[in-house]
Specification:
Largest sheet: 5 strands, parallel
CATH architecture of the largest domain: Alpha-Beta Barrel
Number of domains: 2
Bound molecules: zinc ion
Helix content: 40-55%
Length: 353
Amino acid sequence: MGRGRSHPLDNAAIAELLAVASSKAKYPLQKALRRASRRAFVWPEEAADIHAAGRSLTELSGVGPHLERIIRGWLDEPPEIPEPPSIRTGFLTLPAARAILSHRPKWAALLRGDLQTHSEWSDGSGTIAEMAEAAVERGYEYLAITDHAQSLKIAGGIDVRQLRRQAREIEQVNASLAESGQPLRVLRSIELNLNPQGEGDMPPDALAELDVVLGCFHSALRKTEDQTERYVRALHNPDIQILGHPRGRIYNFRLGLTAEWARVFDVAAELDKALEIDAYPDRQDLNVALLRLAKRAGCRISIGTDAHGPTQLAFIELGLAAALSARIPEDRVVNFLTRSELCAWVGGVRDGS
Ligand SMILES: [Zn+2]
């Protein structure tokens, strides 16, 4: 298989077996298998190790007694692993990401913050204070709150008035962080919703007040024709500095868009804008294969967990590992900048636009 796995059956292989089994099963087993296949990417340990240690696999998310029996059967007698289809290709598991990061411990230590997170203001589960507390625990210098902008109603998108009210809450959280001597500051940001023409859904003057602006596509994501021009238009949008979850892919659900990526990355490099690694396990977008092309173009890369709750800040390891695996140079990772360097970069991009 050439996957270089350290176990006869690693979690990626189990995920694939679960996905294939799901396609042959009936409801409700079908749904349970499909869910477990997705969750396998964030299981904290290799299932094979847990099984070898005589522990129960039901400690893994999405695994009940029935699925445990199925997975144990595979571990005891490994079946042939089919090559995953494109819709399930290029996703790292947490143990695989940690193995990659363990080869260069200095890499993860360069991280200063997370640049895509959601709060209760849109579709997240945590308050800004709770998200900040989780970021303090991780030793961050900054955390960008990127709640959805107004047109994404399904995700509780916020309008200009809410964005300004949110600013006051961020100010209060930052004041109390400063008072308690914490280095963390919450950055004002937003996940701007871009239409296929690359236009945003918020007035530019409201965006100019923010520390950094992320723009993302959320519509027409199943187009199969080349979307290079859409990306070029989005990158030229003067209000954004980061293009988030560029392909719009979702594990086992949506393949995402295609483009002449080398050209997209060249345009980003020319405009000094960043493309994102959305480290949410189901997204992992950009993935390692595209990051290798981005590396060649020399464009900036931003890492965001797309966390919808405080515990999900942990997904950052998937993004860090993808960037390291693609050998993105340190100075191209936006999250390795200090807070003042980050603000200087955003200012420079705005002046250039
Ligand atoms: Zn999004």
